[in-house]
């Protein structure tokens, strides 16, 4: 039995924050420097009343519409987020209630920016266990709420958004070909938020120290991506018996445009079309892969039989890569008649 993507959706908040606008928040963030170092021109910030579940619900509705399904058709609902509405309850249950997916069993996962691909792997297993199941995989992050705007190295990179996909049975020969999931806990300090958990509970002291803010070792992350991601691709492609030159589309985590250009060269993916949304949306955490996939789908860029490599990488440190043979559903036809 083949399992694949039945439909995609995304939601980006209304507020556009350009590099010029960002100077109001990050005084030493020269717009030209931001563009040159990251290729990011703008990002979206959530409105004060919007939380991760709100963005997720919007993206979910778009994905359901694209798949031609109703919320009541969903059996499992997975939300990938590292910026959930609150520590408890699971953000997925809030999304369930918002969209009316009342039959769905719900749970959250947190694999930071690799979360959507890990969620897709879980969905693949759930459908393999129950061939009639429909799984809604959503990634939603609001990084603008945990950024230290006094640190231009991180504050200029991130935006807010959500992306989603419905996973279910597809025609034989299509869908997920194989996946590679990697975790490197010894590098976990490269990306972290120190405060707010059981190790360092939230307090006046942790807030005063800025422990509730996102922290990243940019150089260490770049080294991890350059040394750790291409080998994961090699393992995946070899196991799937697919040549790197046969990959039609590369849909990567939208971390940094300069770093992604280096990754494409290092991984030998120059023959593939690399899809980018970071110039307009920045790094939207675990949502960046499904947001970018949805845009490619709705533009009609993904053709029947195309090989798509989706890849997320981030905190943990973690890498998630999935090969998909596109098609086997009517999602592509529906995409041409719907709006992101």
Outline the structure in words:
This protein has 340 residues and is of the alpha/beta class. 34% of the residues lie in helices and 24% in strands. The chain contains twelve helices and 14 strands. The strands form four sheets. Strands 1-7-6-4-5 form a five-stranded mixed sheet, sandwiched between helices. It has a five-stranded mixed sheet with strand order 8-14-13-11-12, sandwiched between helices. The longest helix has 23 residues, at 218-240. The model is unreliable at 330-340 (pLDDT under 50).
Brief summary of the model shown:
With 340 residues, this protein is α/β, with parallel strands linked by helices.
Task: Supply database-style keywords.
single chain, 340 residues, alpha/beta, 12 helices
Q: Approximately how much beta-strand content do the residues carry?
A: 15-25%
Mean pLDDT: 95
Low-pLDDT regions? 330-340
Shape: globular
Distance between the termini: 30 Å
Name the strands of the widest sheet in spatial order: 1-7-6-4-5
Topology record:
Elements: E1 2-11, E2 15-18, H1 19-22, H2 31-38, E3 42-45, H3 52-67, E4 76-80, H4 91-99, E5 105-109, H5 115-129, E6 135-142, H6 152-155, E7 160-170, E8 175-183, E9 191-192, H7 204-208, E10 215-216, H8 218-240, E11 249-252, H9 257-267, E12 273-274, H10 278-281, H11 288-298, E13 307-314, E14 318-325, H12 331-335
Parallel strand pairs: 4-5, 4-6, 11-12, 11-13
Antiparallel strand pairs: 1-7, 2-3, 6-7, 8-14, 9-10, 13-14
């Amino acid at each position: 039995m083949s399992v694949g993507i039945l439909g995609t959706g995304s939601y980006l908040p209304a507020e556009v924050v350009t590099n010029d606008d960002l100077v109001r928040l990050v005084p030493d963030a020269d717009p030209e420097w931001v563009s040159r170092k990251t290729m990011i021109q703008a990002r979206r910030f959530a409105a004060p009343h919007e939380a991760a579940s709100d963005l997720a619900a919007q993206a979910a509705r778009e994905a359901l519409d694209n798949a031609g399904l109703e919320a009541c058709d969903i059996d499992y609902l997975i939300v990938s987020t590292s910026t959930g509405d609150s520590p408890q309850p699971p953000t997925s249950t809030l999304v369930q209630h918002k969209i009316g997916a009342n039959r769905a069993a719900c749970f959250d996962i947190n694999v930071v920016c690799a979360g959507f691909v890990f969620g897709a792997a879980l969905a693949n297993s759930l459908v393999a266990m129950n061939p009639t199941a429909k799984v809604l995989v959503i990634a939603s992050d609001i990084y603008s709420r945990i950024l230290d705007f006094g640190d231009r190295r991180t504050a200029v990179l991130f935006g807010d958004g959500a992306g989603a996909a419905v996973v279910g049975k597809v025609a034989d020969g299509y869908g997920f070909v194989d996946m590679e999931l990697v975790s490197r806990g010894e590098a976990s300090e490269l990306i972290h938020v120190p405060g707010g958990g059981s190790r360092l509970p939230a307090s006046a002291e942790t807030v005063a120290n800025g422990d509730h803010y996102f922290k990243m070792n940019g150089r260490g992350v770049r080294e991890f991506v350059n040394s750790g991601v291409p080998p994961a691709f090699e393992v995946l492609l070899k196991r799937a018996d697919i040549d790197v030159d046969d990959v039609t589309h590369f849909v990567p985590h939208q971390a940094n445009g300069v770093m992604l250009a280096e990754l494409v060269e290092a991984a030998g993916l120059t023959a593939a079309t690399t899809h980018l949304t970071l110039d307009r949306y920045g790094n939207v955490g675990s949502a960046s892969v499904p947001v970018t996939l949805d845009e490619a789908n709705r533009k009609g860029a993904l053709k029947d039989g195309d090989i798509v490599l989706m890849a997320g990488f981030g905190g943990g440190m973690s890498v998630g890569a999935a090969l998909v043979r596109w098609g086997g559903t009517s999602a592509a036809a529906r995409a041409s008649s719907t709006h992101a």
